[in-house]
Amino acid sequence: MKTKSPVYKPINLNEKFLKFKELWSPRIIAQMNDYHFKLVKFQGDFIWHSHPETDETFIVVQGELRIDFRDGAVILKSGELFVVPKGKEHKPCAKQECQIMLVEPIGTVNTGNSVSAERTAKDQWI
Amino acid sequence: MKTKSPVYKPINLNEKFLKFKELWSPRIIAQMNDYHFKLVKFQGDFIWHSHPETDETFIVVQGELRIDFRDGAVILKSGELFVVPKGKEHKPCAKQECQIMLVEPIGTVNTGNSVSAERTAKDQWI
Question: C-alpha dihedral over A34, A17, B29, B16, to 10 degrees?
C-alpha cells in the first residue's frame, strides 16, 4: 500500500487578505514555534496601548501606516517593517486602508494593556 | 534645555537588499524579543539540513524559491511564506536569484545540523 505524500502549500498574503474585510481584527495565517503571523487591515486611528511582555513587529504589505509614540512617530510604507519595543506606548493609524502583517507571541492581544474591551479583537485563523 | 526626540526609522527591505551581494549569507535587519529578521539571497542549491530546535520562516520578497523535503517540495513566490517545522530536513534552491526574509531565533545557524563548514555563514547586521 502506498502512503500518500503530504502536500506542502505556500501561504499567499494577498489571497489571505481577500478572505476578510473587517478592520483592526487580526487573522492568524501561520505559526512559528510560539509565535503567530497575523494579517490585519487598518484604517483610521487605533487606541494608545503597549505590550508590557513583548516586542511587536509590523510589516506593511500594502498602503501606508503611521505608528505614533508619545515622543515621535514612524511612517511605514509597503515593504517596510518596524519593531515596537516591549512596553512602548504606541498608536497605529492609517489615512487609507492598509494591509499589515504582524509577528508576535501567541496570545498577544491587539489592545495590549489598554482596557478598551470595545477594540479588543479575538484572533482567529484564516 | 530641550531633550532631543528620538528618531524612528522604518526598515526598508529593498534598501537593505541593495547593501549586499553575497549569496547564502544572511544579514540581520531587526530583532524582536529573542528572534532575528534576516535577509538572504539564494541562487542554486543549498545543502540538506534541519534545525532540531526551531521552526524557520521563509518569506519571499522577490523571485521564486523551492524548498525540497525528503517527501515533497513547496514553491514560494513573491508575497508568499512558509514555516519549515522544527527538525524537518529541507533544502532551499532557486533557479534564478531570489530575495528572502527569514524569521528565526537568534543564533540559528543557516546550515542547521549539517556539518558543512564551507556553507555555514556568520550572521551579520546591516
Answer: 160
**Domain locations in chain B as residue ranges:** 21-114
Residues 39-58 of A with CB under 8 A from B: 54-57
Q: What is the pLDDT of residues A44-74, one digit of tens each?
A: 999 999 999 999 999 999 999 999 999 999 9
Q: For residue B116, which amino acid is it?
A: S
3-state secondary structure of A42: strand
CATH architecture, range B21-114: Sandwich (2.60)
**DSSP β-bridge partners for residue B85:** none
CA distance B24 to B46: 8
CB B55 within 8 A of CB B85: yes
User: Is ipTM over 0.90?
Assistant: yes
Which of the residues A67, A83, A84, A101 would you substitute to probe the B interface, choosing the one with the greatest number of B C-beta atoms within 10 Å? A83
Give the global pTM: 0.94
State which CATH number among 2.60.40.1930, 3.30.930.10, 2.60.120.10, 3.40.50.720 fits the domain covering A34-109: 2.60.120.10
- pLDDT per residue as tens digits for the range B23-58: 999 999 999 999 999 999 999 999 999 999 999 999
